[in-house]
TrEMBL record:
Swiss-Prot/TrEMBL keywords: Signal
Signal peptide coordinates: 1-21
Native source species: Octactis speculum
Annotated InterPro entries: ARM-like (IPR011989), ARM-type_fold (IPR016024)
Name of protein: Uncharacterized protein
Length: 224
């Protein structure tokens, strides 16, 4: 069923059309944490409703940036990889596509979303995020690419994604020491990236999972 907290959040979001009220609501870490819990604990109906709400929230640059800080991009991975209905996965991909426009908006002055943004596949969204300049945004992209690379059945397809390997190698060169501790929102479980590992370490581990050798970090992440 719907977690009580998430039900309250979804109700609050549905009853407000004030963009400032919505922005203030999602700025509270516990609020977004309830929505993320709903994507991992809820039924197909709940997950679809939650992802649809997140997609509606991601209607501005500010909200997309806030959702990224709260790990929403990373958590969409579990909806997409999980055994949920296709409509849930499609709604999650749309959320990821919207958040991934942060990579475009870092290079352009407008916050408008180009229709081409919705042509990106989920791995392409992660590649775009891995190319972001803000360290925490780049970390989200790398964390997703690492998680995808852990899935043996996806590795050949990932190697065919344009720019993926180059993006991971570029992260290694940036020496990005961002880790997940800076953006924790209260959802603590096995779905998070390995605690304490940096973007560089995750990028190295992803490259190793894909059968590519790169400078290895001192702390090695065990591959599943």
């Amino acid at each position: 069923g719907v977690p009580v907290g998430a039900a309250g959040v979804l109700a609050a979001l549905s009853f407000t059309s004030d963009v400032h009220a919505t922005a203030a609501l999602i700025a509270v870490p516990e609020v977004v944490a309830e929505l993320l819990k709903a994507t991992t604990l809820g039924t197909d109906s709940t997950v679809f409703q939650t992802c649809t709400a997140l997609g509606n929230i991601a209607d501005s640059y500010k909200n997309r940036a806030t959702l990224c800080v709260h790990r929403v991009f990373f958590y969409m991975t579990h909806v997409i990889l999980g055994g949920l209905a296709c409509e849930c996965k499609e709604a999650a991909v749309r959320v990821a596509q919207l958040i991934a426009t942060l990579a475009d908006e870092s290079r352009i002055s407008t916050g408008d979303v180009s229709p081409r943004a919705f042509e990106r596949t989920f791995p392409e969204c992660a590649v775009a995020m891995a190319g972001c300049k803000p360290a925490h945004q780049q970390y989200e992209g790398v964390a997703v690419l690492h998680l995808l690379s852990e899935q043996q059945g996806l590795r050949d397809k990932l190697l065919q994604v344009d720019g993926l390997v180059e993006a991971l190698r570029q992260v290694v060169l940036t020496e990005n020491n961002e880790n997940d501790s800076a953006s924790e929102v209260g959802v603590t479980d096995h779905r998070r990236p390995p605690a304490g590992f940096t973007a560089v370490e995750l990028a190295c581990a992803a490259l190793e999972n894909l059968g590519l050798s790169e400078r290895k970090p001192e702390s090695k992440i065990e591959s599943s």
